From TrEMBL:
UniProt keyword terms in alphabetical order: Carbohydrate metabolism, Cytoplasm, Hydrolase, Metal-binding
Species assigned in the record: Succinivibrio faecicola
Listed name of the protein: D,D-heptose 1,7-bisphosphate phosphatase
Signal peptide location: none
Family stated for the protein in its record: Belongs to the gmhB family.
Domain of life, per lineage: Bacteria
Length: 183
């Protein structure tokens, strides 16, 4: 069994401009690649768990999402920091695109994507970590049995009261240092 660091995408890995379906709008946040590499060096798998309701809403397609994913992985590979697993929820219950109009089990705050990763990558969820920029990311992880919850990014003021057990930092680099000292 492997421990893993789960990360949300928009607002954690890249700047969240809203509904990002093109590589031209995919800007990796400074420090992300180095942080991913350090997590790997500490023996964690790195797993992306991202809600992409923009697909259901018809803002961009699943194929666009895959192009952005390839671009992201290519950039991270320069630092030896590719994700080991990538899970995406393309659904929304009020979707414009009928194919994705589902009340699914994978859209965070539901825990589905964590269970898919557990199954595929043999992950030990109880010794894993979640890093998100919204409380809903952390609720999903908590439901899956992850107790090490980190909130980072631009929304700490609004989101931290919603998840009092979350450890809050401005940057992912600070999370790496915390985990390094406390593991
Ligand atoms: Mg986010
Ligand atoms: Zn879903």
């Amino acid at each position: 069994m492997q421990k893993a660091v789960f990360l949300d995408r928009d607002g954690v890995v890249n700047i969240d401009y809203g509904y990002i379906g093109q590589i031209e709008r995919f800007d990796i946040i400074k420090g992300t690649a180095l942080a991913l590499k350090k997590f790997k060096d500490m023996g964690y798998l790195t797993v992306l768990v991202t809600n992409q309701s923009g697909i259901a809403r018809g803002k961009y397609t699943y194929s666009d999402f895959l192009k952005v994913t390839s671009f992201m992985q290519a950039n991270l590979s320069l630092y030896d920091a590719c994700f080991d697993g990538i899970y995406c929820c393309p659904h929304h219950e009020n979707a414009y695109v009928e194919q994705y109009r589902v009340s699914c089990e994978c859209r965070k705050p539901k825990p589905g994507m964590f269970y898919y990763a557990e199954r595929d990558l043999k992950i030990d969820l109880h010794h894993s970590v979640m890093i998100g920029d919204h409380a809903t990311d952390l609720f999903a992880a908590r439901r899956a049995g992850i107790s090490s919850l980190f909130l980072i990014g631009e929304h700490l003021k609004e989101e931290s009261p919603l998840c009092p057990e979350a450890i809050c930092y401005k940057t992912i680099g600070e999370v790496v240092e915390f985990i390094r000292k406390n593991q």
